[in-house]
Amino acid sequence: MPDLTLTVLEADRLRSLASFYAGHLALRPRFSKSSRWARRVLAGPGHEAWLLGWLPGQGTELHDHGGLDRPAAAAVTVVSGRLGEYTVRPGAFPRLERAELAPGEVSTVDDRTVHAMRNDSDAPAVSLHVYSPGLDAMRTYLFDETGLAPSAVKRAGEDW
Known about the structure:
Blueprint: H1 8-23, E1 37-44, E2 47-54, E3 62-64, E4 73-80, E5 83-89, E6 95-101, E7 106-109, E8 115-118, E9 125-132, E10 137-144, E11 147-155
Antiparallel strand pairs: 1-2, 2-9, 3-10, 4-7, 4-9, 5-6, 5-8, 10-11
């Protein structure tokens, strides 16, 4: 689902890139029992793309793409299988909103959106993620009845 703070032009560009790259994959995804598998598959002008393999039950922590020096907007498209996207919706009573992404569906988020992806199904899933600019870090969060609290910073190349 599009995030309203992401410009329509940027969201459309990211959706188009994610769909194009997903339809022209040269690399076959892998799967790891210990955690989701991730591999950067290309970098272009002002963006990069990552291919991810998810076994049933694997997912990310709640995170944003605020990075350290370069916040990044993102688009994710499901290549095969299904993924659940959990987005924190702020308000007097913050809540998690779940959307299921099927093959070919694309979701976009801005650099401030806090979300998580998870393979809730009983079959493997593959997704392609495009970040603009390239993603240098993700900030993770804890979420409970008191709200959202920063947890850690995960750096590209070191923590995933």
